[in-house]
């Protein structure tokens, strides 16, 4: 395999990603327009004194909402495929042998290849930012979320980012190697899943008791019930932002540090290669 073949393959995949991106944008726009038109049509015709106008308006609104829902489903379907294609392309590039690049003599082809790599990185960065936002919004009381936190480097988007960063640092010797995943896994290995799960269970029991007693006392003593209900809500919010127990607090700290490090790699649009 030579750089010409690799570049042609990447070019075809990026073309497909571009088409999918346009489809996502168009379908999302169609859905927004249809839903807005449905709402406006309903508001303009629902109070009409003319039965025919109300009937036509109602039917038009329903049809608009159905079309909008269809376009939204189409957008979500293409978005899912688009994401998987990005991850597949990154996985393909993770096996790239840099010796192929070193053997290439055509400067223009090298420049084209580097630009394609930057484009792939930009596509992946959009997924990384989305997943960072999702992880930051997750609580740490449920077993599922705890497992996600402790296996964060195995989440497909972050795993792909780690692979791509290795390739980028191999190509650009001035780029610092990304090793936050090594530090993360080392720190996580010091924590026990069972202990974190136990801490989460205690927090859930406390919140549950406060809410149950608040609901039970609502008819007999509204002021005390309100205090208990608010206490349960505030306790949940406080623990979500600032975990009370040590192991959970340490897990959150490790996760936040990893997310901060991986976020620092996002948005870099230059790649220096020296033969």
Describe the overall structure.
The model has no long low-confidence stretch (mean pLDDT 92). The chain has 275 residues and is mainly α. It folds into two domains: 95 residues; 149 residues, no CATH class. It has ten helices and no strands.
- Give the tally of β-strands: 0
The helix/strand series, from N terminus to C terminus, equals: HHHHHHHHHH
What count of domains describes the coordinates?
2
| Unreliably modeled segments | none
Query: What best-fitting shape do the alpha-carbon axes yield?
Result: flat
Structure annotation, total helices: 10
Beta content comes to: under 5%
Report the span from N to C terminus.
19 Å
Radius of gyration: 26 Å
Overall pLDDT level: 92
| Helix content bin | over 70%
Structural class: mainly alpha
What does the largest sheet look like? none
Summarize the structure.
This protein is an all-alpha fold and 275 residues long.
From the structure above, extract its key features.
275 residues, 2 domains, 10 helices
Write the layout of secondary structure elements.
Blueprint: H1 3-45, H2 51-94, H3 98-103, H4 107-137, H5 143-150, H6 156-171, H7 180-188, H8 193-216, H9 222-241, H10 246-263
Helix pairs in contact: 1-2, 1-4, 2-4, 2-6, 4-6, 4-10, 5-8, 7-10, 8-9
